[in-house]
Amino acid sequence: MQDKLTLMIPGPTPVPETVLKEIGRHPIGHRSSEFQNLVQRTTEQLKWLHQTTNEVLVLTGSGTAAMEAGIINTLSKGDKVLCGENGKFGERWVKVAKAYGLDVKVIKEEWGKPLDPTKFKNELENDKKKEIRAVIITHSETSTGVINDLKTISEYVHRYGNALIIVDCVTSLGACNVPMDEWELDVVASGSQKGYMIPPGLSFVAMSKRAWKAYERSDLPKFYLDLGPYKSTSLKNSNPFTPAVNLYFGLEKSLNMMQEEGLANIFNRHSRHRSAIQAAMHAIKLPLFAAEEHGSPSITAIEPQFINAEELRKTVLNRYDILLAGGQDHLKGKVFRIGHLGFVNDRDILTVIAAIEGTLDALRLHKTNPGAGMAAAARILA
Prior knowledge:
By secondary structure, this protein is an alpha/beta fold. The chain folds into two domains: 17-260, Type I PLP-dependent aspartate aminotransferase-like (Major domain) (Aspartate Aminotransferase, domain 2); 262-381, Aspartate Aminotransferase, domain 1 (Alpha-Beta Complex). Helices cover 42% and strands 16% of the residues.
């Protein structure tokens, strides 16, 4: 049957019908007063979501554009930085930092393990000349389903040095608590196709006062991603370039929905869905790739021992029109990932668990009583 595909991946995530209808409106002029009013409203909503009084700038681009912008607008060539790497996206920020000539020290953990905050503490504490300019980390490591201890790492950054903390919050913002001001985060980057519940195309960069001060000394090359013009035009409810106007329509609608639900309820929903998936996988003997206590509220990685993960994923897609994410790099065929981020409800969670159990039954690989996973998840959701 056509048009029944269900996305259970870390992005793009499902989009509410009301948001799609808003995006389908006729475009308006991006220099019109109507659009400026829209920018003003969504800017205040974005501050609410980020839990900050700082400006949240909107770029037309992906989450990678937002992270690259955060790095190149606050640092200079040769600056020393610490970069956390425990998955595919941590690796990406190391590559970006090196591409711009930064002096990178990698704080590395095995894929599936969380970053160790004490390693950052030790590096910062031993930096007697305070030469480390930034700590760059991923909060929710999408490739492995691990959530890193951002709060503690940020505390160490501010306690032991003068470094900025630059954070990839692409799959954590809108799924778990990321209080920018309270945790003294300097750069927070995110993307529209995740917790924001709209299609890909917009990215967001929030900068602290410390980050803007660092911007003044930054000498890395930039033009389209130069955040200075974005800030000056944002104060006039505008944009230095042509923005994705129709995505702004959807953004306002999705942020309205998020405000109606409330931050605490959003965070609790994602946490509950993570717990339900974890309980179901335990019940049907599919091991979690990341330790349960370090699981991301956005995505869960599973490492089946008795079936190729790609075979299971493809069977779920072919039989049930549900798209799961595969493993990346050396994890391909070894893990599959269930996204539970954004516009996902209890029914979606039960449906994907039933599809996985049905697939195991069809392949004669179910290790427990049929329905064990559903029952375990239902107890959590109840």
